[in-house]
Amino acid sequence: MDIKKPYLLFLGDAHDQLAAKVAIGIKQWHPEYCVGQYRMADCHADCGLPDLDIPAERAAGAQTLVIGVANRGGIISQQWIAILREALESGMDLAAGLHNKLADVPELRELAAKLGRSLFDVRHPTETYPVANGRKRSGKRLLPVGTDCSCGKMYTALAIEKEILASGVKATFRATGQTGILISGAGVSIDAVVSDFIAGAVEVLAPANDADHWDVIEGQGSLFHPSFAGVTTGIIHGAQPDALVLCHEPTRKTMRGVDYPIPDLAACMALNLSMARLTNPDARFVGISVNTSALDEDAALSLLATIEAEFGLPAVDPVRHGVGRIVEALASL
């Protein structure tokens, strides 16, 4: 996909900051792609970009309106349609990573065709994937896994890729979700792949490589989340990871969107390791990535020290403290 830049990030009616994680991720990792944001009256998220209407965004050079909202169910809200039409009429393309397709909305599809605009549905794969074979392949692979969904797996993966590259070692971030695809420009939205082919899609996404090359594969969901455990399982088996990093948000009591409790860290690590060792008997954890944004510095440092002492692994907040210590642990693999 050749999505034209720069972007107008559409936050729509996001009910909280996490619901706008697509837009926030793009702005954080590639601010040079972004000229502004569009927020509806009842939006409760903010990327820290200028709030501009469609004509002002177009005048500022925006080429594509990117729907930056990851709402539950991935729907294209009827309340958004008038704004999306205005963007097309102003000369912008549209891009989205939702379960619903832009191309399946008749009035958007017909208007885009009439005006010669493009609709990019990055969540929907355009190639056919094989059934996984589980054969050992060359190269090294790292996979972040989580106690919950939306707890820092993509951020951790991107931070680790950046740190590995800074150390002079070869690495590639492999996106498995819509935000990662829009950030990196490539990947497969794994939750749109038919279940029989999830592991095979990851084998294609992170193929055999040089012996000293790290593929850093974006994790999804959680083995303990009743909605998304199946996707997580397929990614783990297809990734054939040499290294696992556990991602955790310590202030949550229940998993996002459901009433199930956050699992114990030790139990979560044990189950992920058991799953990983199906396709790589040598898989092991190399660190724990903790989102301490809801804690003050003293509380964060105390928690990280406690986790590190319990598990004997580097425990870091990748935003506050970086992932250097986790990357250092990869040298032994």
UniProtKB/TrEMBL annotation:
It comes from the Bacteria. Residues 42-125 form the D-glutamate N-acetyltransferase-like N-terminal domain. InterPro entries: DgcN-like, DgcN-like_C, DgcN-like_N, P-loop_NTPase. Residues 131-327 form the D-glutamate N-acetyltransferase-like C-terminal domain. It holds the Pfam family DUF1611_N. This is DUF1611 domain-containing protein.
